[in-house]
Amino acid sequence: MHGRIFLAGPLFSEAERSYNASLAARLRKEGFEVWLAQEKGIVKLGTSPEKQYLFNEDLEGIRGSAVILAILDGTDVDAGTAFELGYAHALGKPLYGLKTDYRSFSPVENVNLMIEVPVRQIFRSLDEVIAALKSEAF
After folding, report:
1. What's the Cα-to-Cα distance from 10 to each of 26, 55, 84, 107, 137, rounded to whole Å?
2. In sequence order, what E strands does 38-136 have?
């Protein structure tokens, strides 16, 4: 059994949540434990206690995970995902990216350099991610 993967990515639309859930299901089928924020709850009431609870849950999920896998699709990385990557990097967690979107941040960067530099590798498919993570001991 492998260590837990924190799956970071946007969760604000039905399409995003569906995509995240399908990635998590496939990773689990391959034997990985996955922490997915949308399974822990999303902001519904907008109260300060609710937001604080979800924020704390997210940070605990990062701290308790062996690696971070971030969905990097789009021309710019989701703000919450960027925060999670920064926090995880500060903790020394290994960071990986999944970017299936062919758009680039700029002519010289696949994603913003503040994301691209600390991320060990950016993969183009989930199959690539699974093969790489299975070859690592974590």
Report:
1. 18, 14, 11, 24, 28
2. 67-71, 95-98, 121-123
How many Cβ atoms sit within 10 Å of the Cβ of residue 116?
16
Rounded to 5 degrees, what are φ and ψ at 84?
-60, -40
Prediction pTM value:
0.94
Distance of CA 93 to the CA centre of its chain: 12
Q: How far apart are CA 52 and CA 18, in angstroms?
A: 25
Say if CB 86 and CB 112 are below 8 A apart.
Answer: no
Cα(16)–Cα(28) distance, integer angstroms: 18
Q: What value does the mean pLDDT take over residues 82-91?
A: 98
Q: What is the pLDDT of residues 38-85, one digit of tens each?
A: 999 888 889 999 999 999 999 999 999 999 999 999 889 999 999 999
3-class secondary structure, 7: strand
Token pair for 133:
């993570």
What the chain holds in terms of domains, given with CATH numbers, is 4-135 (3.40.50.450)
Integer Rg of the chain from CA: 14
